[in-house]
């Protein structure tokens, strides 16, 4: 199959591209290297067509998709904190950029599987969170993800095949500083044998899902007969940041206590996915557990794997 991965030099996009190459697909990556890195593509750079360009550039996009079978759309500006001071640019890339791909899908007939986010829910009133629960974003980044969902729904009603995956907190090799950055920060401290630092009281909870599971969700969504809708991609389990810090410390065998700093603005209090819908319709289930992965890295001192 001929596939375009936008944001393919980033964390999630590069793992999707690696999977596709391993399975014999013809892969083009469009990325402006804003946060993405060519280093993320070392395993596959002689097998892909890499285009350094911007999803806001309709003409560039059109050249890449006019004969494509599908698009995995991962490109976005993805920092909650930065989105407060760069609202217009976040809207432009995340919403206008996404609409470019939707318009082209309508014209050329390819399917889109794209990255939405659990942040569309804001601070949930019920845990675990179901796909049709309230969506009340509490920061500009999350608002752009919700605006993109409205567009995706509108285009799907006019015949475009587009599936949105609401990733929870994705962790794994090459992970970005957003979402699961806390894991990276904690491991960096443990490597230096100093205490991990928690923002706020540490009682905020997160549903961490492994990159391998996220890639599988993307592939299943692309291959399935499902033509529309939004799916939670989380494990259905959550851990508090305090417990995460203690888990990392205990796996290291060091005698440390976490330290606490200021709470971050725009940080949601709790996330935990209800995964019934994705299990049922896409036959997906998470396989990698965070505690196994962390213990493996820390006990083997495999810190280059983050
Ligand atoms: N990592 C997570 O836990 C998580 C959770 C929820 C949603 N998401 C979403 O998943 C997607 C991938 O996230 P990630 O963690 O891999 O982040 P990332 O920053 O590693 O990847 C994003 C990629 O998009 C590229 N990009 C940014 N603006 C672009 C533009 N205008 N044109 C072309 N390329 C552009 C960047 O250079 C980067 O390579 C994003 O849409 C993000 O919002 C991620």
Topology:
Elements: E1 2-6, H1 11-22, E2 26-31, E3 49-52, H2 58-65, E4 70-73, H3 80-83, H4 87-108, E5 111-117, H5 140-157, E6 162-167, E7 169-171, H6 181-191, E8 197-199, E9 205-206, E10 208-210, H7 211-223, E11 230-233, E12 239-240, H8 241-252, E13 259-261, H9 276-282, H10 290-299
Parallel strand pairs: 1-2, 1-4, 2-3, 4-5, 5-6, 6-11, 7-10, 8-13
Antiparallel strand pairs: 9-12
Give me the CATH superfamily of the largest domain: NAD(P)-binding Rossmann-like Domain
Look at the helices and sheets and give the structural class. alpha/beta
Low-confidence stretches: none
Biggest β-sheet: strands ordered side by side in the sheet: 3-2-1-4-5-6-11
Please write the string of helix (H) and strand (E) elements: EHEEHEHHEHEEHEEEHEEHEHH
- Write down the overall geometry: globular
Q: Name the ligand types.
A: nicotinamide-adenine-dinucleotide
- For the secondary structure, the number of strands is 13
At the fold tier of CATH, the topology name of the largest domain is Rossmann fold
In CATH, the architecture of the largest domain is 3-Layer(aba) Sandwich
Q: Helical segment tally? A: 10
Taking the sheet with the most strands, its summary is: 7 strands, parallel
Computed over alpha carbons, the radius of gyration is 19 Å
Q: Termini, distance in Å? A: 31 Å
Overall pLDDT level: 95
The share of residues in extended strands comes to 15-25%
């Amino acid at each position: 199959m001929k596939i375009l991965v936008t944001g393919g030099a980033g964390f999630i996009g590069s793992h999707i591209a690696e999977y596709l190459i391993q399975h014999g697909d013809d892969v083009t990556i469009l990325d402006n290297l804003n946060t993405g890195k060519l280093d993320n593509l070392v395993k596959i750079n002689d097998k892909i067509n890499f285009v350094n360009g911007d999803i806001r550039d309709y003409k560039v996009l059109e050249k890449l998709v006019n004969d494509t079978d599908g698009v995995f759309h991962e490109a976005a500006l993805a920092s909650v904190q930065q989105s407060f001071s760069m609202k217009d640019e976040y809207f432009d890339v995340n919403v206008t950029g996404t609409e470019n791909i939707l318009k082209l899908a309508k014209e050329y007939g390819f399917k889109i599987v794209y990255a939405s986010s659990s942040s569309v829910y804001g601070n949930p009133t019920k845990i675990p969170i179901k796909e049709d629960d309230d969506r009340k974003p509490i920061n500009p980044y999350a608002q752009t993800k919700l605006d993109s969902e409205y567009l995706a729904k509108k285009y799907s009603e006019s015949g475009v095949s587009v599936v949105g995956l609401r990733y929870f907190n994705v962790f794994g090799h090459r992970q970005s500083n957003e979402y699961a950055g806390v894991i990276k920060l904690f491991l960096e401290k443990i490597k230096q044998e100093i205490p991990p630092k928690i923002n706020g009281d540490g009682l905020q909870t997160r549903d961490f899902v492994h990159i391998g599971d996220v890639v599988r969700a993307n592939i299943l969504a692309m291959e399935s007969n499902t033509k529309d809708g939004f799916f939670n991609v989380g494990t259905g389990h959550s851990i508090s940041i305090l417990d995460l810090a203690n888990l990392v410390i205990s796996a290291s065998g060091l005698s440390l206590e976490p330290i606490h700093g200021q709470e971050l603005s725009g940080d949601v209090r709790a996330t935990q996915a209800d995964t019934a819908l994705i299990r049922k319709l896409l036959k997906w289930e998470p396989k990698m557990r965070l505690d196994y992965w962390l213990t493996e890295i820390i006990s083997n001192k495999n810190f280059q794997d983050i």
